[in-house]
Amino acid sequence: MTAGGGAWVLGVDSGGSGVRCALGRAEEGSPAEVLTSDEPVRTGPAGIDAGRLLGQLVPAAMELLARTGAERVAAVAVGAAGMASLGDDLRAKLPAALAGALKVRRLALAADGVTAYAGALGQRPGAVVAAGTGMIALGTDLTRWRRADGWGHLLGDCGGGAWIGRAGLEAAMRAHDGRRGGSAALRERAEALFGPAAELPGLLYPRTDRPAVLASFAPEVARCAASDPVAATILREAARNIAESAAAVCPEAGPADGDSAHGTADESVSECEVALTGGLFHIGDALLAPVRQELAALAPHARTVPAAGDPLAGALLIASALAREELRLPHHPRMLWVTTERDG
Amino acid sequence: MTAGGGAWVLGVDSGGSGVRCALGRAEEGSPAEVLTSDEPVRTGPAGIDAGRLLGQLVPAAMELLARTGAERVAAVAVGAAGMASLGDDLRAKLPAALAGALKVRRLALAADGVTAYAGALGQRPGAVVAAGTGMIALGTDLTRWRRADGWGHLLGDCGGGAWIGRAGLEAAMRAHDGRRGGSAALRERAEALFGPAAELPGLLYPRTDRPAVLASFAPEVARCAASDPVAATILREAARNIAESAAAVCPEAGPADGDSAHGTADESVSECEVALTGGLFHIGDALLAPVRQELAALAPHARTVPAAGDPLAGALLIASALAREELRLPHHPRMLWVTTERDG
């Protein structure tokens, strides 16, 4: 039995800048009401803390239900940064907690890349690059997920905001030292933002939000790129890294119904939609143009498309599909974890 | 009035793996007694914590004095990782504290690069690269210090242990993703050491010693370099970065007494001794050979030489020179801070 299209569903997007909750009808794509909190759910020793997320999610859901006059929600989808690698506490505690607090039995826990995907492309096959402070690429042919990067600022996130900002600050320090690879322009921008170069380590390392501090310098790198060759090279390298991740996850096969004959390599590769999403692409053509160039070289069947919606819209779309039993995006123990417990 | 060559002096080396103290005679180069602690002095909100350092240094000094039968020390030199950027608390509190506890009025606070320099080259002009988890290059013509890098694992330390290990782990994650630039060999080594690739972020990011964890993978990169082209490229890039820092700090001028005429560029550039010190170079020729090659291309007047001693020997040498009023290494407010308060 499906919950029906008239039911209400809740989408949640938990990220580095806070938590957003949207309530909407399962048959509609857009939210009826949205609540935003500026307080991010911090990561503790057990990963993303279920108690802290619930402490925001449950009151927000109550408030949204009160605003719309809805009695209950038929499904909840939570997208969270770090869900894939740090979501054990959520997977362990959220089903029972939400069944208790909101009487909801249909729950999806999605990596933020998956909600970005659903927001951008809905339930169509393709690939999404989600780039902000970090960077992850996800693709699916609707049979399985392929993921590239999203490993954080030390192991990857290659081409993301922290990556670009870090490279820019390194170039500033090189200029300070008189080392090869330095940029006087980036040094000037770094000192305007953060003060004397030699004091930057003392500012950066004690912070707990180091990736965000690094990423805050990415727009300066983009601004310098038009006139500074070091900054231009950083953006070009970022674009190459982003294209490498996108190319690694683009589905290659023909139509998913598998009826068409496999021809030569040229014929059997269908087009792959690639949506570039996330705040990093607000940099604009200084980054977008080289990403398209690099992607054309690496994956000729890829075609960049605008994202239809954001990760919050994606969470709501997943919750709606779950309520209607029409979720076609592949389940996965870490990427898209779904539980549909029955009432006891 | 000098304290005289017969006086006792104390050298201290405070680093990421602990604190070492050496007591020796001012006229001798080598320590009479050494005490080692495995407990590093951690960095707090005010930088290196003076109270914690004193908590180790004073009892160690008392013990060393008791062992040798010496009554007091004439000078103390403390070399510490992070002294240049995080040493404010030490500079504020150590002079009075050591005058009180050890009756010592001659104190030098040196960046660990400076003690590495003094240990390697004594008081001769030249350049030193100190590479372990991090990487810093220091050079002097005995009129001023030139520093390159040593800015930590996010802003630089280019070519150091954390840099090499990080690049190796990134290549492992690329292989896991099927991205360009991946190395199956490095992925295999990373999984042998840390477990499944996808779980590496969950292991690494909650740690407070992330640079050390990254650096622990550097020997694996070195071991793979003979047969794996990605690992070989990482070592070659590390060598290039190290050579860039060394080249940036090599003194260029002729004899320091400045009597010789300046000829053409070819004639006026004298040889510059460059000592490569620190645990990273235990990797051996896989790293040393490309460093020498890159350095020859960047700074033809540079000549790599073995280090005479380690940073603890350098701290003792600085303390000895301070006691004898023969300190020729340039004073500097952050790199080599010297105070010689008189008795009240």
Describe the structure.
- The structure is a homodimer of 344-residue chains.
- With 344 residues, chain A is of the alpha/beta class.
- Chain A has two domains: 8-121 and 309-340, 2-Layer Sandwich (Nucleotidyltransferase, domain 5); 123-307, ATPase, nucleotide binding domain (Nucleotidyltransferase, domain 5), CATH 3.30.420.
- Chain A contains 14 helices and 13 strands.
- Chain A has helices at residues 50-68, 83-86, 88-102, 112-121, 152-155, 161-177, 184-194, 200-204, 210-215, 218-224, 229-249, 265-268, 285-298, 311-323, and strands at residues 8-15, 18-25, 33-37, 43-44, 47-48, 73-80, 106-111, 126-131, 135-140, 145-149, 272-277, 302-305, 336-340.
- In chain A, the strands form three sheets. A six-stranded mixed β-sheet of chain A has the order 3-2-1-6-7-13. A five-stranded mixed β-sheet of chain A has the order 10-9-8-11-12, with helices on both faces. The first copy, chain A, has a two-stranded antiparallel ribbon with strand order 4-5.
- In chain A, α6 packs across α7 (184-194) and α6 runs antiparallel to α11.
- The radius of gyration of chain A is 21 Å and the shape is globular.
- The A-B interface holds A 43, 45, 47, 84-86, 146-149, 151-156, 158, 166, 169-170, 173-174, 177-181, 198-202, 204-206, 210, 214, 244-245, 247-248, 298, 334 and B 43, 45, 47, 84-86, 146-149, 151-156, 158, 166, 169-170, 173-174, 177-181, 198-202, 204-206, 210, 214, 244-245, 247-248, 298, 334.
